[in-house]
Design a protein that fits this description.
Rossmann fold; five-stranded parallel beta sheet
């Protein structure tokens, strides 16, 4: 299992690091790069085509402003592309969200929330878990831990009110 993370700028990395950490926690191999849909379109194309040859099965793609990096990646592959709009302008990520979610029919990009990189990793893990029972088991345990964490938080809040 291998996922590629492509970001439009190295300034996007702090937002994507939790996604990379979660993928690693689940045992998913990662390759990552910086490439710009508008400044280095040839680099984007070359990276996507080579990533497919290198056994990448899912792309997580993040960019801010109206830089539609995820859409460009999707144009070069039939593999799943998960877009992460980044809050990088005075529009608070709305421009990135709209450019990522408004794909033409037949070229989908699964779009996460603005700065929603961790959910992008979860989506990639769910995609892999369809054909990997070990990963599916890890995912079920992760969800159970999330439930337990919420219960503990509820107990702490209740205790503070007493």
């Amino acid at each position: 299992m291998k996922a590629a993370i492509i970001m439009g700028s190295d300034s996007d990395f702090p937002i994507l690091k939790p996604a990379a950490d979660l993928l690693k926690e689940f045992g998913v191999e990662i390759d990552a790069t910086v490439a710009s849909a508008h400044r280095t379109p040839e680099r984007v194309r070359e990276y996507v085509l080579n990533a497919e040859k290198d056994d990448v099965k899912v792309f997580i793609v993040a960019a801010g402003a109206a830089a539609h990096l995820a859409g460009v990646v999707a144009s070069y592959t039939t593999l799943p592309v998960i877009g992460v709009p980044i809050n990088a302008t005075s529009l608070n990520g709305l421009d990135a969200l709209l450019s990522t979610v408004q794909m033409p029919s037949g070229v989908p990009v699964a779009t996460m929330a603005v700065n929603g990189a961790k959910n992008a990793a979860m989506m990639a893990i769910e995609i892999f878990a369809v054909s990997d029972d070990n990963l599916k088991e890890k995912l079920v345990k992760y969800r159970e831990k999330m439930k337990a964490d919420v219960s503990k938080k509820a107990e702490r809040v209740k205790a503070q009110l007493e």
